Amino acid sequence: MRLLLIRHGQTPSNLKHLLDTAEPGPGLTALGEEQAAALPGALASERIDALYASTLVRTRATAAPLALATGLDVRVRPGIRELIAGDLEMRGDDEAARTYLRTAFAWSAGDVGLRMPGGEDGVEALGRYDAVVAEAYESGAGTVAMVSHGAAIRMWVAARADNVDVDYAARHALANTGVVILTGSPEQGWHVLLWEGDSVGPLPHTPDPDDPAGAAVPAE
User: Fold this and answer.
1) Is 17 a known active-site residue?
2) What H or E segment, with its residue span, contains residue 127?
3) What is the pLDDT of residues 163-195, one digit of tens each?
4) Distance (Å, whole) CA 64 – CA 40
5) Is 8 among the catalytic positions?
6) Catalytic one of 33, 82, 138, 220
């Protein structure tokens, strides 16, 4: 399956650098609406078969232009919502931001028992995200777009992709409506093809259709 993980458009809380993770959350700024409107054009080369968004207002608003352009219904799932900030909610200080990201990337590195202060632990956060990805894969869709959240995307990709580690994800913040494209499956694992348009490591070999040696390689 080809998986497009898309961060939502800009919100007022983004401008204030606030850890705003509670439901339903803010809507988009004027710029955020423009970013969402530009997504169908930016993803015009993708043949999207299924479209998901989290339960937060900002992801559903970002997904709306894609839904209109593709004719797809938006499948709203709480599992791909932002990592719940708990006691850090609505804080914008450096200490809170460091604690939040340090906890998230600790989960990516395998310390899933660590708990966000007053919030969820890594088992819960990865489990809910995994469940939505597995649902999408089991639907048989070839290409799936999920409008989600920056920290959740970076945490999950660093935990599940074979060619993105914590260091890479920590150094590459996702811009609003930034896209990470992966290929793979829950069983075989995931490989990042593009991170905001940049190639990440060697791409998987695609056999030439006329190459007899490639005929036995199953398509993902």
Assistant:
1) no
2) helix 122-138
3) 999 999 999 999 999 999 999 999 999 999 999
4) 10
5) yes
6) 82
